[in-house]
């Protein structure tokens, strides 16, 4: 099974459904990526912060060596971590990440957060974290404009075909678009029925940015992290409305949540190590929800954000 693609403002086609690598264990990552490719996944969303890019690359290499897929048929995404925002740090870390993946270019390279932190050399600690070598949260003075110019240089050098942003507010997107020589192709945000961010989504789409949703299943991804508002929030899979719509359409709650996004042109990047669910998660474009269903799901919005630095004990009040 293959998934439809969406045309980016860079001219490249991006699959509407991909496989997210956040919290994929190192010991299973290569096999999970390999199996996902066999199932039909072509987009893989990674980041140096996830700490599993080498293993993800091993899964890709195995699939390519066996003739299951060609490199040009894949859409590999990675992200620039906060501690590499200083302009002179951008290309070296991008090259390291490319080497970890075992590829020559990223299809999409994203600024992970609009936060510049003090540089920590990868030889000292990798994958990176929110704190510097002394264990404290320390900021860099690098503005987003300087970081973005270094991102644009990656496109010039052929290291990234498209560049994008993540966790940016509408105000920051507006500011970035004023000086961007290479416009961001995508905006990746937390997006689920408890956090619909409708104004941000509408603005980004009007400006020609493709929105990608992460954490499409809401609190589920954050329970093991013991994020307080996730633990106290009703699971979307068990919500009567979601279950009822799933039964009506002969689908799973997960498929309903993903179709709620993709039917509105929002890309999704779920993950699973279960072959059945892998296939189900990919099958979220060839059928439609009723407009009334979409509206009712959207009305579940509670402004609940789970991926917030404050929730991890970090005073970075960006949202």
Automatic annotation (TrEMBL):
Catalysis performed (reactions): xylitol + NAD(+) = D-xylose + NADH + H(+); xylitol + NADP(+) = D-xylose + NADPH + H(+)
Entry keywords, A to Z: Carbohydrate metabolism, NAD, Oxidoreductase, Xylose metabolism
GO MF entry, a single one: D-xylose reductase (NADPH) activity
Organism superkingdom: Eukaryota
Residue ranges of every copy of the NADP-dependent oxidoreductase domain listed in the record: 18-301
Any one Gene Ontology BP term: D-xylose catabolic process
Family annotation (InterPro entries): AKR, AKR2D, Aldo/ket_reductase_CS, NAD(P)_OxRdtase_dom_sf, NADP_OxRdtase_dom
Pfam families recorded: Aldo_ket_red
Role noted for this protein: Catalyzes the initial reaction in the xylose utilization pathway by reducing D-xylose into xylitol. Xylose is a major component of hemicelluloses such as xylan. Most fungi utilize D-xylose via three enzymatic reactions, xylose reductase (XR), xylitol dehydrogenase (XDH), and xylulokinase, to form xylulose 5-phosphate, which enters pentose phosphate pathway.
Protein name (Swiss-Prot/TrEMBL): D-xylose reductase [NAD(P)H]
Species this protein is from: Aspergillus saccharolyticus JOP 1030-1
């Amino acid at each position: 099974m293959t998934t439809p693609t969406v045309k980016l403002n860079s001219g490249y086609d991006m699959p509407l459904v991909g496989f997210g690598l956040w919290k994929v264990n190192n010991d299973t990552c290569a096999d999970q990526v390999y199996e996902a490719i066999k199932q039909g996944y072509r987009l893989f969303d990674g980041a140096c912060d996830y700490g599993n890019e080498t293993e993800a690359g091993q899964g890709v290499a195995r699939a390519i060596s066996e003739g299951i897929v060609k490199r040009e048929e894949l859409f590999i995404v990675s992200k620039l971590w906060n501690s590499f925002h200083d302009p002179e740090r951008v290309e070296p870390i991008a090259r390291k990440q490319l080497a970890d993946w075992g590829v020559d270019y990223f299809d999409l390279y994203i600024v992970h957060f609009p936060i510049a932190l003090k540089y920590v050399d990868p030889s000292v600690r990798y994958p990176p974290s929110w704190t510097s070598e002394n264990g404290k949260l320390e900021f860099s003075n690098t503005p987003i404009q300087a970081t973005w110019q270094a991102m644009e240089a990656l496109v010039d050098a052929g290291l990234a075909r498209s560049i994008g942003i993540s966790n940016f507010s509408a105000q920051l997107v507006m500011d970035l678009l004023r000086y961007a020589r290479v416009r961001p192709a995508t905006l990746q945000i937390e997006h689920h029925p408890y956090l619909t961010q409708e104004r941000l989504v509408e603005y980004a789409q009007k400006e020609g940015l493709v929105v990608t949703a992460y954490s499409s299943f809401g609190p589920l991804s954050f329970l093991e992290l013991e994020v307080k508002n996730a633990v106290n929030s009703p699971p979307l899979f068990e919500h009567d409305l979601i279950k009822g719509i799933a039964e009506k359409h002969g689908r799973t709650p997960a498929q309903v949540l993903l179709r709620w996004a993709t039917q509105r042109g929002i890309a999704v990047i779920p993950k699973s190590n279960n072959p059945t669910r892998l296939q189900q998660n990919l099958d979220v474009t060839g059928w439609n929800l009723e407009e009334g269903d979409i509206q009712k799901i959207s009305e579940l919005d509670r402004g609940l954000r789970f991926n917030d630095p404050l929730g991890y004990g970090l005073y970075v009040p960006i949202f």
